[in-house]
Amino acid sequence: MARPSPLSLRIDPFLLWLIATVGCASLLPVRGQAAAAVDILADCAIALLFFLHGAKLSRDAIRQGAGNWRLHLLVFASTYILFPIVGLSLSLLLQGWVDPVLLSGLLYLTLLPSTVQSSIAFTAIAGGNVAAAVCSASLSNLIGIVLTPLWVALAMHVNGSGGSAAFHSIQSIALQLLLPFVAGHLLRPLIGGFIDRNKGILAPVDRGSILLVVYSAFSAAVVGGIWTQVGIGDLLILLALSSFILAIIMGANFGVSRLFRLPREDAIVLLFCGSKKSLVSGVPMAGALFPAAQVGPLILPLMIFHQLQLFLCAALAMRFRRQQEESVAPVPLPRSEAEIIRAAAAVGLPIDPACMPGVVANMALLDRHSGILLANDGEGAA
User: Fold this and answer.
1) Which of 21, 101, 273, 308 could pair with 119 as two cysteines, CB 3.0-4.6 Å apart?
2) What is the CATH number of domain 13-327?
3) Rounded Cα–Cα distance for residues 289 and 145 (Å)
4) Rounded-to-integer distance, Cα 61 and Cα 1, Å
């Protein structure tokens, strides 16, 4: 019986929650004092999320993966150099053809840090270097707290104020994201055991905080008339452009892996950590970087790209896992006397005819034991 797939290619339920949240904000946008209360609640949820991520991050995993500096530089270059170049090029080429706000959102997603949880999960499923993935993804997010606002100020001219806007944004993001993250990591010796035993608590905080921010952002956007500006055609254009960006980045990372002759495990890290963008970081950063009425349409491309990258990376992770399992498939043991003679001759091993009955009996015993072990391994993996 075939073992169940470790990862499903069905639509991510979180996408359905996102769509439902956008629909709720479109029908019942929050306004006035209620909107201010939702904003405060969302900020608190995001702070809690980054606090838990900091507490979850293991220093041993960071130390184990930190030495692979060449791989980390390649991931950094993909996330913060290649992605922005592609985003800037598209924004210049498509001016006048695509809605300027949506085009800004497309550029914004290319300036964000990589994901953490899904990058590590896909790397583990595909048989990659998990320790390096933990280090690369975590480092990408920490650097992004400073680098993304600077990139935004440079590439998007936020409020037309250049460096001062970037400095103000860094302060805001540092207070909301970096401070809770560092506090959680410093408290890991006290609460790390509890977090590791109850990893499931991150999922509702992770998704709930994003849904709150999305609801708040789209409420403000609906009040500002977003659905009079964005139509089905715009969404299809965003899907096509997101697919194009992802294809370019993944293709480039495949090529770089071959050029630098990265081991298979490291090539997987570059592919998954270097080709993804974080919804968890991108949504709250957008709230700190842009006016409230612009956040909704600006994060639309990120929401589309997020689901697209999950679907494609899931398919690739499953393919790499199958390849790994096929490459280490057990070789059948020779059982009959004729098979044993052929196998021995192939490696130049002489067998005394008087010893042959004992060799056949031993091979039969080994074959029976290996069958028991493989059966138990299959049950445990199921």
Assistant:
1) 273
2) 1.20.1530.20
3) 12
4) 36
